[in-house]
Amino acid sequence: MTTQPTPPSAKLNLRGAVDLGALAARNTRREEVARRAAADPDAVTQGSPFVVDVTEETFAELVQSSVQVPLVLDLWAEGYDTGAEALQALADEYAGAFLLGRIDAQAEPGLAQSLVQSLQARAIPLVAAIVKGQPIPLFTGSYPTAEEIRPVLEEVLRVAEANGVTGRVEGAATAAEAEPAAPPVPPLHAEALAAVEAGDFDAATAAWTKALAQDPRDAEATEGLARVGVLRRVAGVDLAQARAAAADAPDDVQAQIVVADLDLVGGHVEDAFARLLGIVQRTVGEDRDAARTHLVDLFSVVGATDPRVVKARQALTRALF
């Protein structure tokens, strides 16, 4: 069974959360890691500066380091460690954006027991993140695939950035120097991202719209435009008042849409989806259509391949038919 990360209480801001240049570089490195793994399956798990073995003696220091670099912990045991290679390959692929700490439950039983209890977990393998000393449960039991793990890691990195944790693992610069140069970011993409960083949502909207006019199949522009739409809608909204209004009027579609947007910006993706799915399930006519349309728009914000989107899209289909 897998669970998605529960972000810390700090509000997650989508501004700057998607760096297309970094994503392009990461895709290049992903291909490199895949080639190395095919040639030598052990190559991605040995000698990496981004993977460390954790003991009781080193645990406290690593947790302290999570104020600078996100820490992902992999608690494993012989006979239960099925698929950890995917995590280690991803640590190499992300090249220092997070540190992967491996804990052998049999060698470190005290540490393993403390971690399981603190996270209220029921099984190992257990994977969790730590950001600024705060634990974020990710998943337990059998490992998901690398493609399923990746969006979870992206969410952890967004939470970390929202909390000011933007450092990199020491030694990452040296590894990055060996990477092939990333393809340049398209000018209109760069213009839109710069506008979002500056808080100029009108300019960002215009740039993304131009990019889509040039290439209607530009998925990054489609997602960027959807993100700007969310940021524009929640700008200046009082969170407490919005939640109170939604609680007082559970079938007020517009009130629920506002809170769904706030949930999404706050990193509570599944809550946002569930709120709108509830409206679709219990209303008809224009209200139902408005909730459905907005939910599909939020799918674009998160990304079509995100497992949470896939799950919510299936639920939407069941609700409609």
List its traits:
321 residues; alpha/beta; Glutaredoxin; Serine Threonine Protein Phosphatase 5, Tetratricopeptide repeat; 2 domains; 5-stranded mixed beta sheet; 14 helices; 5 strands; 57% helix; disordered N terminus
CATH domain class of the largest domain:
Alpha Beta
Shape field: globular
For the terminal residues, how far apart are their CA atoms? 27 Å
Q: What's the number of extended β-strand segments?
A: 5
Total DSSP helices: 14
Task: Provide the gyration radius in Å.
Answer: 21 Å
Range of helix content: 55-70%
Going by CATH, the architecture of the largest domain would be: 3-Layer(aba) Sandwich
Q: Per CATH, what is the topology of the largest domain?
A: Glutaredoxin
Number of domains: 2
Strand content: 5-15%
Q: What strand order characterises the main sheet?
A: 1-3-2-4-5
Order of helices and strands: HEHEHEHEEHHHHHHHHHH
Low-pLDDT parts are: 1-45, 173-179
User: CATH superfamily membership of the largest domain, which one?
Assistant: Glutaredoxin
Derived from helix and strand composition plus strand pairing, the structural class reads alpha/beta
The major β-sheet equals: 5 strands, mixed
Average pLDDT, rounded to a whole number, is: 79
